[in-house]
């Protein structure tokens, strides 16, 4: 609803315990926990307490960020925020410790909040945690911070399989190749292990759902496929969905006043334009991916010659939400305020499946570039993951879809309220 | 021209270059606050246009008073206060609530930057020629009562009975019925929206035919003969320079070098420098021309020398790659040169502008340079002198690979500019060797 109609947009920025927990775990699981994992004996309460103590400094940083965000909006952080966050972190750590850490050896490398794009399949996603064992095995972890029980719950199952397709693309360049893959959904009361490899029918279900969403996003208006009835009850977009269903039905029956019907058509036409524009923000990725897949190193050099990418960067420092990069020669193409993607080039990994970070250029000075990312935690995480890798900088695009769709939804509802007599 | 806007409702102000659209918008905000006690939101599509609003408010009220009544918000990197324009930049919602005049960009007029419960009595939108309809609607949400806004957006209860049903027949009628006061300022001949649809219309094209519209015809920027050229090029139907600036000319203090004398002649308001440099493709759709970039920088260097740095100079190019190249060459030459694309130059002006055509190839494909809006902006930024650097052959004979409504067919409108320049006595001057070295 949010991505196609502009309805039901959530508050921008940090707004929930769940997001805060993700932020804490995203840095903690990479930073502090591997050392405990190596010396792990049991899943006792003491061990859990030790893990939580290790997360404490990161948790305080995250809370400081949230307090600042709330202050900037003239709001106060809810009094029970920290207590609720502690609760969620404790429960997740207990599940993680007892079902994953105890049962599996420590990984060679931990990657968190990894955004992977399979350009050719037009599939982009973000993995909460990816544990690499260095022998072709990898474990994908998805944190579930809401109080739902750990079992096969439709959406969660599909989501983690969707992430698994991206992880497979990263390691095998084929999304259906599940060799070495394992996945876990960590809930507050346990861990759910989806069947890996999934059945061909399940894989097809995920791929069909992906194709359907793509059809919706490109404004082609595929025939509606009613969701499983039970999902409507839990859907946060129920009211907005009812609104659009109801007025579409009335419009088809000719029961709407002409004035509102015309406004409605105008606003739907504008939505189509916005969604078409949205496709253009991925053009750079297509060009880069195509050039690299067709011509490899030559393709990359050609892209550099025409100024689409620039190689030769390395990450030197991090300060608050700024990443400071150095290039071995003068920076030619990029300028202040350009949105960019920093990609750490990994051997044998497709370019857009490598570790990466997104931000805006704050300053360019000779061969030094400062990039601002979304938060201090994101900057720290990006620094830890990218610091030892050669970095390629490529142009990125700002997605204005939500900002453009929201007033269209607002005025659609507003016009309905004012013009449709009841 | 502003008074009729104080009575409220929706209105459109169309203005050719330099007529004072931004000034009118800023003036309206000041009057609305001082006479009616209104809270006003001023938005523009680009940061530079929003910053122009701030400068105009400071001119109206004086820096100190402007700092008291106005505030700038949005993207941190988009604005820097100066002694002449000390309006504060802030993200603090309590300060934004306090100040009666808030300035930001259109895309920043969202919940991310504005307090959720804030409501404005009036919205003034500039550069609506570059906006699409959905962009125009973004700030108008803040003219609707915050309780209604909250109900629709957050509490998601869209089925409440209407407290005040409306008999409006269209979207703008509905807004007017709900006492929304907004002024849409722009010029469809200076900008067009970036749209995936080739036949898309701008916000101002939408409002001009549906609201009370006024077109301003006196320019305070373009001296004679540039006013005529721009008027006939864009078919404004009578754009004329104000009497106070009609004879404004470039003030040269030191004599320029011999090779540059003809080009920098103050009595020639428009000069054309013929440079047959080869274009180079950059990126997916950008282009640069090193010979033209060098010519631009050498001209700027000469100008700084002959005017002892007393004039402002702006270099304009259609393509980002060319703009970057000009900036790079200027840096090597040790001069500070304001270098912009035609989009970035919208709303800006300088004493002297140097426009680099950039496109020069054996196929005579002139591409985006032949778009009415881009060329119009490029030639209408100058207060005293306009220098056009490029291939005369391309300007005269260039064609467009993919015709659009803006290019008006395969030949675009560049040939029209060539004809007008000839008609007004502007002949191309061959670039001297020193210019492209």
Structural class, judged by helices and strands of chain B? alpha/beta
Shape of chain A: globular
Q: What is the CA–CA distance across the termini of chain B?
A: 50 Å
Oligomer: heterodimer
For this structure, what is the CATH homologous superfamily of the largest domain in chain B? Answer: P-loop containing nucleotide triphosphate hydrolases
Quickly describe the structure.
The complex is a heterodimer of chains A (422) and B (437). With 422 residues, chain A is of the alpha+beta class.
What does this structure look like?
The complex is a heterodimer of chains A (422) and B (437). Chain A is globular. Residues 11-15 of chain A have low confidence and may be disordered. In chain A, 38% of the residues are buried. In chain A, 48% of the residues lie in helices and 19% in strands. In chain A, a hairpin with a 2-residue loop joins strand 6 and strand 7 (322-327). Chain A has 4 domains: 1-106; 108-220, Trna Endonuclease, Chain: A, domain 1 (3-Layer(aba) Sandwich), CATH 3.40.1350; 229-281 and 403-419, no CATH class; 283-395, Elongation Factor Tu (Ef-tu), domain 3, CATH 2.40.30.270. In chain A, helix 1 crosses helix 3 (45-72) and helix 3 packs antiparallel against helix 4. Chain A is α+β, with helices and mostly antiparallel strands and 422 residues long. Chain B is of the alpha/beta class and 437 residues long. The interface between A and B is large, with 55 and 57 residues.
Search tags:
A: 422 residues, Trna Endonuclease, Chain: A, domain 1, 5-stranded mixed beta sheet, 11 strands, globular, B: 437 residues, alpha/beta, Rossmann fold, 14 helices, 32% helix
Task: Set down the secondary structure blueprint.
The complex is a heterodimer of chains A (422) and B (437).
Chain A: H1 17-31, H2 33-38, H3 45-72, H4 81-101, E1 109-118, E2 123-132, E3 138-143, H5 154-172, E4 181-187, E5 190-192, H6 200-217, H7 229-234, H8 238-252, H9 258-280, H10 283-305, E6 309-319, E7 322-327, E8 339-344, E9 356-365, E10 368-372, H11 376-386, E11 391-395, H12 401-419
Parallel strand pairs in A: 3-4
Antiparallel strand pairs in A: 1-2, 2-3, 4-5, 6-7, 6-11, 7-10, 8-9, 8-11, 9-10
Helix pairs in contact in A: 1-3, 1-4, 1-11, 3-4, 9-12
Chain B: E1 10-14, H1 21-36, E2 40-44, H2 47-61, H3 63-69, E3 70-72, E4 88-89, H4 93-98, E5 101-105, E6 122-126, H5 133-140, H6 146-153, H7 171-177, E7 182-186, H8 203-208, E8 212-215, E9 218-219, H9 226-234, E10 240-241, E11 270-274, E12 280-282, E13 286-288, H10 290-307, E14 313-317, H11 320-333, E15 338-341, E16 350-356, H12 372-379, E17 382-390, H13 392-397, H14 414-423, E18 428-430
Parallel strand pairs in B: 1-7, 1-8, 2-5, 2-6, 3-4, 3-5, 6-7, 9-10, 11-17, 11-18, 14-15, 14-16, 16-17
Antiparallel strand pairs in B: 12-13
Helix pairs in contact in B: 1-2, 2-3, 10-11
């Amino acid at each position: 609803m949010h991505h196609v109609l502009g309805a039901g947009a959530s508050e921008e920025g940090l707004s929930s315990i769940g997001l805060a927990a993700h932020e804490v775990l995203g840095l903690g699981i990479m930073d502090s926990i591997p050392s405990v994992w190596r010396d792990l004996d049991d899943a006792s309460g003491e061990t859990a307490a030790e893990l939580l103590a290790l997360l404490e400094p990161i948790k305080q940083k995250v809370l400081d960020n949230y307090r600042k965000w709330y202050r900037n909006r003239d709001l106060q952080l809810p009094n029970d925020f920290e207590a609720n966050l502690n609760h969620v972190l404790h429960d997740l750590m207990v599940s993680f410790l007892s079902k994953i850490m105890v049962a599996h050896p420590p990984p060679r490398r931990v990657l968190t909040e990894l955004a992977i794009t399979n350009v050719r399949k037009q599939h982009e996603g973000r993995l909460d945690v990816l544990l690499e064992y260095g022998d072709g095995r990898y474990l994908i972890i998805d944190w579930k911070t809401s109080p739902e029980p750990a079992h096969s719950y439709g959406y969660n199952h599909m989501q983690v399989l969707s992430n698994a397709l991206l992880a497979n693309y990263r390691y095998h360049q084929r999304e259906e190749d599940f060799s070495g893959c394992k996945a876990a959904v960590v809930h507050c009361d346990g861990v759910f292990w989806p069947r890996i490899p999934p059945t061909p029918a399940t894989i097809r279900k995920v791929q069909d759902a992906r194709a359907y969403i793509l059809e919706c996003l490109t404004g082609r208006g595929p025939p509606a496929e009613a969701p499983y009835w039970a999902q409507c009850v839990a859907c946060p977009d129920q009211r907005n969905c009812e609104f659009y269903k109801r007025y579409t039905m009335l419009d088809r029956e000719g029961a709407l006043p002409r004035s509102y019907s015309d406004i409605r058509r105008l606003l739907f036409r504008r939505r189509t334009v916005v969604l078409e524009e949205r496709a253009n923000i991925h053009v750079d990725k297509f060009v880069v991916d195509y050039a690299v897949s067709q011509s490899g190193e030559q393709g990359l050099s050609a892209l550099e010659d025409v100024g689409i990418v620039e190689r030769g960067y390395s990450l030197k420092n991090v300060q608050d939400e700024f990443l400071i990069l150095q290039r071995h020669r003068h920076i030619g193409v990029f300028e202040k305020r350009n949105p960019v993607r920093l990609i750490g080039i990994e051997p044998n990994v497709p370019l857009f499946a490598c570790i990466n970070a997104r931000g805006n250029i704050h300053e360019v000075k000779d061969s030094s570039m400062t990039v601002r990312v979304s938060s201090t935690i994101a900057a720290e995480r990006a620094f830890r993951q990218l610091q030892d890798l050669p970095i390629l900088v490529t142009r990125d695009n700002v997605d204005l879809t939500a900002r453009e769709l929201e007033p269209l939804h607002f005025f659609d509802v507003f016009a309905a309220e004012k013009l449709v007599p009841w | 021209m502003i008074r009729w806007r104080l009575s409220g409702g929706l209105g459109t102000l169309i203005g050719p270059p330099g007529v004072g659209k931004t000034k009118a918008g800023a003036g309206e905000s000041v009057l609305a606050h001082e006479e009616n006690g209104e809270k006003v939101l001023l938005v523009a599509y680009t940061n530079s246009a929003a910053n122009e609003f701030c400068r105009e408010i400071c001119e109206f009220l004086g820096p100190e008073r402007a700092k008291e009544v106005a505030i700038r918000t949005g993207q941190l990197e988009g604005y820097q206060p100066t002694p002449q324009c000390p309006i504060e930049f802030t993200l603090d919602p309590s300060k934004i609530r306090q100040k009666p005049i808030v300035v930001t960009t259109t895309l920043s007029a969202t919940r991310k930057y504005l307090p959720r419960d804030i409501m404005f009595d009036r919205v003034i939108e500039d550069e609506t020629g570059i906006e699409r309809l959905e962009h125009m609607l973004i700030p108008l949400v803040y003219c609707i009562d915050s309780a209604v806004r909250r109900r629709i957006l957050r509490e998601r209860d869209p089925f409440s009975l209407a407290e005040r049903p409306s008999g409006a027949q269209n979207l703008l009628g509905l807004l007017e019925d709900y006492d929304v006061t907004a002024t849409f300022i722009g010029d469809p001949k200076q900008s067009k929206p970036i749209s995936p649809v080739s036949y898309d219309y701008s916000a101002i094209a939408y409002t001009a035919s549906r609201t009370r519209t006024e077109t301003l015809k006196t320019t305070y920027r373009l001296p004679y003969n540039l006013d005529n050229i721009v008027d006939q090029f864009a078919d404004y139907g009578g754009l004329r320079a104000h009497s106070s600036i009609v004879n404004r000319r470039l003030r040269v203090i030191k004599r320029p070098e011999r090779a540059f004398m003809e080009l920098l002649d103050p009595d020639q308001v428009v000069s054309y420098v013929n440079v047959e440099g080869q274009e180079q493709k950059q990126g997916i759709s950008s282009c640069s021309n090193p010979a033209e970039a060098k010519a631009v920088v050498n001209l700027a260097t000469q100008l700084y020398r002959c005017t002892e740095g007393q004039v402002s100079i702006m270099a304009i190019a259609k393509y980002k790659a060319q703009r970057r190249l000009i900036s790079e060459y200027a840096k090597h030459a040790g001069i500070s040169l304001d270098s912009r694309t035609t989009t970035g130059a919208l709303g800006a002006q300088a004493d002297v502008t140097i426009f680099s055509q950039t496109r020069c190839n054996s196929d005579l494909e002139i591409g985006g340079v032949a778009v009415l809006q881009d060329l119009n902006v490029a030639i209408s930024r100058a207060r005293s002198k306009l220098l056009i650097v490029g291939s005369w052959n391309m300007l005269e004979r260039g064609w467009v690979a993919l015709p659009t409504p803006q290019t008006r067919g395969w030949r675009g409108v560049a040939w029209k500019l060539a004809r007008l320049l000839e008609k007004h006595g502007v002949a191309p001057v061959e670039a001297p060797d020193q210019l492209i070295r």
